[in-house]
C-alpha cells in the first residue's frame, strides 16, 4: 500500500510503498477512501523536516538540553548516533481519515466489516486504529464531508472548554480550517461570532457563513473593533486557532476580553504572557488538548477503556460522533471549505510548495481497487541453502539503533523484518538492504529459509512469539525478558525440550569486553565472591508501558534481569534465593527503586541496586567484585580497575555493552552448531530470580529460586 511520510533528516515528503498493517486486538482495519490534509499542522511538520540541524535545535531547546546531558554521560559519538537514528525515523503524516472497515480485531463489537467510518488515521491506503478513535458515518454524510470529523473535533473541544452560553460574543483568532469550523459551531451554539484573519478568501467564506469576519491588514484595530462591537464591554471569550510565533496574539486576546472573560488556545502561538493583561480583568486562560478527553490516555485509546458517560460526557470519540451528527443535520456545512481534490499519487501537488499554499482544505482521493499485501520485497537477494538466515520481529528504536548496526557489521543474512504497522520495518529494510518488510510476522515462521528468529517487541509479546517460533522449528533470540509469568516460562521450557533448536536471551552484559576481562581475572575455581552492581537506570514516567506489569512487566523483570545474569556469570553458580527491598513506605510491585540481594548455590553473594532516582551525570552502570583479597571495579563499561591482582588487570573500552560479541557468537553458533551461547538453565534461573524478586517484595521475605 502507499503511505505519505515525512523524512525528518532531509525534509523530503515521500509516498512510500509499505505492507498493509495487520488488524490488532481492540482495533479495526480501514481501507481508506478519503483523507483531509490539515495544512496548518502538516505545514509545521514539513517545514521542521526541511530545517537544518541548527534550526531544528532552536525549535526544540528542551531536546538540546537532553542531548547535552547525554554527551556528558555517554560521550559525543553515541549521542550523535542516537540523534541521527531518531531523525532517521520517518513521521507518518495525516490524521483525518475516512474509509470502509475491512477487518475487525478481537474484542471489537461496535463495528462490522463494511461500515463506513471516520478516524484519526494517517494518509495511507489502509490504517489500523483502536476502536475509541473510530466513529461510524451517518448514511447521508459523504466521505468528503466525513473527512472533516477530526478537524471539527479539535475545534469542538476548544468550544467545550470555552463553555459558551446563548447570546455571548465570541472571537475566533485565525480563520484557517479549524478556525472556520470553530466559528460555525459557535454560531450553532447561539453566539455572536467575530473572526480575524489576514487571508481575504477565508474572511469571505466566513462572512458568507454569517460570521463577522475582519481582515486586520485592511487597517482595522482588532481590540478596538471588538470593544465597539460589544458597546465597550469586550468579548465574553476568545478561541485562538492561529499558528504564529508572535506574542502579540495572546496579548490582544486578553485585551479584547471583558472582565473575567475566557481565552482558549487551540493553535500554536508565542506565549510570553503579560501578567497585567490577565490580572486586571481576572481573565482565565486554558490550552485545549486535541480532540477531547481520552487523548494521549493509553487506557482509553489503546486499551479501549471508555470513560463513564455520567462523569465524562464528551470524550474524543463522542466528539467525533457529535461532529458527524452536526454535518448530517446541516448545522455544520464543510463543503464550501474544500479547495481541491487530488489523487493520492499526485500528493506532491499539495506538499511540493505547502509553505505558499492558499488552500483551505485539500482532499486526497484513494484508489480502493488494490488488494491488501502484507509483505513487500525490498532487496532482491537469494537465501536458499544459506545457514543462519534471520527474520526480525520488531522494528523499534532498539532494533534501529543497536541490533541492525551490529548485524550489519557481521554481514548477517536478514531475509525479513516485521512491524505491526509495516512502515518502520520498511524504512529499516531499505536502510540495511534487508530482503523483505512484512506486517505479518507469521510469514517468517512459515519460511523454510529462516532458521533464526530475533524477537524485539514489547515485553508481553515475547513469550507467545517465542513459543510460536519454537513450534515452527526456529531457533530464537529474544530481547529480555524471556517471559513475564511463571506459566509462560514453563510453557517455553516444555516446548524447548521438545524441539531441537536453541533459545537465547539478550543478556548482552556478559559478552562485554570488560566483563570478559573480569571473568578471566576471577578464574573458574568456584570460589565464593561478593558482587555489588549498580544500575543508575534513570527516571521513566509512570505512564510508560514498561511500568505496566501486564505489558512491560516492570523494570525489575524487564531490565534488572540484565544484572542478575551478569552476577550469575561472574559467580559461576545458580541463584538459590532472592530478597528484594524497595524504596518507599508501601512500594508497589512495579517499583524501579530497589535493592536485590542474591544468594548463590556456591556461597557467592550479590547486591544489585536498581535506582531510577539518581543523577544522569553519574555513571549509568557500575560493578564491583570482591574475591580473595582482590577487587575489581568496572565503571560504565569504559574503565576497569583492578586491586590485588598480579600483573594488573586495568583496562579501558569504548562504551561497549557486548551487543556485537553476543550477536557474533549467536550467528556462529547457528551456522556452525555447538552449545548455546548462554546455557538454557542459566537463562531460566535468571528469569525465575527476577520473578522471585517481585514475590519477595510482596511477602517481605527471602524467596527460594527452584
Describe this structure in words.
The model has no long low-confidence stretch (mean pLDDT 92). This protein has 706 residues and is an alpha/beta fold. It has a nine-stranded mixed β-sheet with strand order 33-32-31-30-26-29-28-27-34, covered by helices on one side. Strands 3, 5, 6, 7, 8, 17 and 18 form a seven-stranded mixed β-sheet that branches. A seven-stranded mixed β-sheet has the order 19-22-21-20-23-24-25, sandwiched between helices. A hairpin with a 7-residue loop joins strand 32 (639-643) and strand 33. Helices cover 34% and strands 24% of the residues.
CATH topology of the largest domain: Dihydrodipicolinate Reductase, domain 2
Q: Output the number of helix runs.
A: 23
Share of helical residues:
25-40%
Q: How big a fraction of the residues is strand?
A: 15-25%
Q: Radius of gyration, rounded?
A: 29 Å
From the spread of the alpha carbons, the general shape counts as: elongated
Beta strand count: 34
**Global mean pLDDT:** 92
CATH superfamily of the largest domain: Dihydrodipicolinate Reductase, domain 2
Give the CA-CA distance, first to last residue. 50 Å
**Can you tell me the number of structural domains?**
4
CATH class of the largest domain: Alpha Beta
What is the correct CATH architecture of the largest domain? 2-Layer Sandwich
Domain GFO/IDH/MocA-like oxidoreductase: 540-632
Keywords: Metal-binding, Oxidoreductase, Zinc
Pfam families: ADH_N (PF08240), ADH_zinc_N (PF00107), GFO_IDH_MocA (PF01408), GFO_IDH_MocA_C3 (PF22725)
Domain Alcohol dehydrogenase-like N-terminal: 85-139
